[in-house]
Amino acid sequence: MSGPGGAPALEADGVTVRYGDVLALDGVTLRLGRGTVCGLIGMNGSGKSTLFKALLGMVDLTAGTVRVDGGTPARARRRGAVGYVPQTEAVDWAFPVSVRDVVMMGRYGHLGITRRPRPADHEAVEAALERVELTDLADRQIGQLSGGQRKRAFVARGIAQDARTMLLDEPFAGVDKRSEATIVRLLRELAADGRTVLVSSHDLHALPQLADEAVLLLRRVLFHGSVAEALEPDNLARTFGLDVSDARGGEAA
Ligand SMILES: Nc1ncnc2c1ncn2[C@@H]1O[C@H](COP(=O)(O)OP(=O)(O)OP(=O)(O)O)[C@@H](O)[C@H]1O
């Protein structure tokens, strides 16, 4: 489960993030090993995107620490060790780049001193496009793809990057069945290859086929364990903000 030197692939310790008055994360502690797909489940506003930003070093932590691949998030990003598929809303789809250009961005950490792509970089990009079944659309401007195709383009970027850790924020939102099945298959392949995949969703139906483990988030980690246990009614009630104290005879939920 651990990487070189025994360090977990992803490690958050007491991570707290405040945006002014809003407490987005409250002491999140989480460890993920290698070769696993972990589903990150929480309702809108529960802090899923903020946790990704914390793991990527893209937000100031009010408290706590994050380690990716045994180092800081900035170091992991510089080394291309962490791939990120952002939420659809977080991307400027009008940006004048082709699908192939987006996938090539995954190679930036691999480029030599000239910063010019070499044959191996082009080969990695074409192979990644093929794996997500977007070869035919590779020359299209990124905004001219459907929702599912856009997600697949960003998954291809992570594959081309050869990232050891992949973070995906709501990859199934607005995605058709074919794209969903392709993404699930690819993420399972990445985990089988020893990579660590953390994938957020507020939708639970894909979870059993997709994930080996699940984290339930509501500003803090309510549960981390098997998918089957995560889907138990009590856990879901707590995650989605329902008060189950009555059902438990007054015990605090
Ligand atoms: N830049 C920001 N400034 C102020 N508040 C923010 C900012 N970003 C997020 N928040 C707030 O922090 C909380 C957590 O937001 P976050 O985007 O992490 O949730 P989420 O679980 O990803 O939600 P969703 O499922 O809707 O994407 C929310 O209350 C949100 O309104």
UniProtKB/TrEMBL annotation:
Pfam families: ABC_tran
Keywords: ATP-binding, Nucleotide-binding, Transport
Gene3D superfamilies on file: P-loop containing nucleotide triphosphate hydrolases (3.40.50.300)
Top-level taxon of origin: Bacteria
Keyword rRNA-binding: no
Gene Ontology MF terms in the entry: ATP binding
Protein family membership: Belongs to the ABC transporter superfamily.
Name of the featured protein: Metal ABC transporter ATP-binding protein
Organism: Isoptericola haloaureus
